[in-house]
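Annotated sample (chain length 248).
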Amino acid sequence: MPGTIHVEKIGHHVSLLTIDNPPANAMDAAMLGKLLEEFQAINDASSARAIILTGSGNSFCAGADLKAKGGEALSAFGRLLTAVESSPVPVIAAINGWCIGGGFELALCCDIRIASADARFVCAGVNMGLMASAYRLPRLIGVARAKAMLLTGSAFDALAVERFGVTTQTEPPAALLIAAKNLATRIASRAPLSVEATKRVASRAMDLDPTAMRELEKQELPSLRNSNDHQEAVKAFREKREPIFTRS
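Output written by the structure step:
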């Protein structure tokens, strides 16, 4: 059977996307196009506040299908990475199993990564005569630790990558999606315009000096101060209740 992307809505504001193409959840051009289409549809929906990305079976993702003819899959995979990384909606990678090569790069493009205790991580570029994650991984965990993963092509377990700082938590396999949904629901309950602005600024923080960062904050803060959601947050604080945000 051909691979597919399963889409599930969790409440009104969270979407769960599952890559399903056993055994390793590699994606051909058609699957990549479908996943890219789903991301774009979610981003276009004003109700979207968080996305969870996971895999089926015992794999998260092995990236583009290298057995596919031509460069279609690799080209489509590059477009997908850009879409995930630039998504205004926060993306959580729930890494359920093997996270290999391009799949590892896909996880790095997500905002938050959590893993099953069964997950294994492989920077497989040097194993395949290619290169991947040489830019994003050192920025995330530092050059020394990144090189230990990038230059060896070895498998690292979930506790090791959490210690390195790739992931923020490790869960028992049965609890992974529960944890991801709880995290996504929490993010979705915060002020959406604020979450989106914070993601934009945090994503650029590593590239800006303090002066440029202050200028960027000056651009973002006025509209947040004038938003209905800010007024609602202040009112809810005074009334000792949870705020109800409307993304306005």
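Annotation: The longest strand covers residues 4-10.
Annotation: The chain has a mean pLDDT of 94.
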